C-alpha cells in the first residue's frame, strides 16, 4: 500500500517512519509538510539517512487522493478538523493521531481544548481506535481517531474492572506520569532540558484535555461512572507513560481472582501483558514496543485495588496503535510491522 504522513517532521511522524519501514504491506511512504516544502526528510531527521531519501511535499488534496491509499495525520489540533473529511471523501483512509475527532460532543471539546471543534458530521464518521475494545467498528472505518497516550494506558488498565462492574464507581483516581516526548518536538519552556532534568512536575491539574476522553469511554462502558480524577506529571525521561490507578473494590477479591479477570479478558490480545502476582511493570519494559503491560494489587487493609499500566507513548500511545488500526482496517494480521521486542536496557 501507499501511505502518506502529514506531520512527518514531528515525533509521531518520526515514529511512523521507523515502524512503516519494516511493514511488509507498505511499499511507498509519501511525506507532506505545512512549512518545509522541498526539504529532504534527512535534514530534519539525519537518523533516517539512507533509509528515507525523499523531499517533503506540500499538502495538496488533489495529489493526496492519487498518491496514497491511507493518510496518517500526526499533526497539532485543528489540522485534522480541516483535512480529514476532505481526504476521506476523496478516497484515502484517514488515521488521525490528534485529539480533534475523539470527543463526541463539540461543546465538551471546545471547553477542554479551548478551540473550535470539528463539525459534528465529521466526528460522527470517526471511529475511536482502541483496538482491544473496539475492533469490530475499526474494521469498517474510513476515519480513525487514534486515542490519546494517557487515555490508552488508563483505559486498558481500567477496562476489565469497569466492564465487570466490580468497583465503586465514585472511587477512580488516575495518577499518570509521562516522558517529555509526549509534548512533541517543538521547544517548550516547560519541557526543555534545564526545566526537566533532575525534576518531576505535575501539570494541568484538573484541566488536562484527556480527562473528557477518558470519561467519555468509561461512561460508554458503564453509564454509572461519574467524572474521574486524573492528574498528569512530567518525568525526566524521553519515552514512556505510567498510569497508576486507584479504585475501591465493591467486594473482597483475592490476588488470583483479580489477575484471572485481567488474564481472561485480555487472553486474545497480543499487545496487552498482565504481570504475575507481586510484579509491577516499569516503562523501560515496553520501551520502543507496542505493548501495554499491566500490574495489579489488592490491598486487604483498605479494600483498594492498584492498577499499574505502562506504555511507550509514541508507540502504543500514538504511532504503533495507529499502525495497529491501519492493519485492522485493511484486513492484515494485527501485529504486522509491530512485532517489536522492547529495547532493554
Ligand atoms: N508525542 C506523543 O507522544 C503523542 C502525540 N500525539 C498527538 O499526535 C499529534 C502529533 O504529535 P507530535 O508528533 O508529538 O507533534 P510535533 O509537534 O512533534 O509534530 C507535529 C507536526 O505537525 C506539523 N504541523 C504543524 N502545523 C501544521 C499545520 N498547520 N498543518 C499541517 N501540519 C502541521 C509539523 O510539521 P510541518 O511543519 O513539516 O508541517 C510538525 O512536525 C498531536 O496532535 C499530538 O497531540 C498523540 C499521542 C502521543
Ligand atoms: C507530556 C505531554 O505533554 N503530553 C501531552 C499528551 C500528548 C497527547 O497524547 O496528545 P493528544 O491528545 O493531542 O494526542 C500533553 O499532556 O498534552
Automatic annotation (TrEMBL):
Gene giving rise to this polypeptide: argC
InterPro entries attached to this UniProt entry: AGPR, AGPR_AS, AGPR_dimerisation_dom, AGPR_type-1, NAD(P)-bd_dom_sf, Semialdehyde_DH_NAD-bd
Full protein name: N-acetyl-gamma-glutamyl-phosphate reductase
Signal peptide residues on this chain, from the entry's feature table: none
Superkingdom of the organism of origin: Bacteria
Record-annotated active site: 149
Annotated compartments: Cytoplasm
Domain Semialdehyde dehydrogenase NAD-binding: 2-141
Keyword NADP recorded: yes
Root EC class: oxidoreductase
Catalytic activity: N-acetyl-L-glutamate 5-semialdehyde + phosphate + NADP(+) = N-acetyl-L-glutamyl 5-phosphate + NADPH + H(+)
Main location: cytoplasm
Involved pathway(s): Amino-acid biosynthesis; L-arginine biosynthesis; N(2)-acetyl-L-ornithine from L-glutamate: step 3/4
Function: Catalyzes the NADPH-dependent reduction of N-acetyl-5-glutamyl phosphate to yield N-acetyl-L-glutamate 5-semialdehyde.
Record-listed E.C. numbers: 1.2.1.38
GO terms, molecular function: N-acetyl-gamma-glutamyl-phosphate reductase activity
Keywords: Amino-acid biosynthesis, Arginine biosynthesis, Cytoplasm, NADP, Oxidoreductase
The family this protein is said to belong to: Belongs to the NAGSA dehydrogenase family. Type 1 subfamily.
SUPFAM superfamilies, sorted: Glyceraldehyde-3-phosphate dehydrogenase-like, C-terminal domain (SSF55347), NAD(P)-binding Rossmann-fold domains (SSF51735)
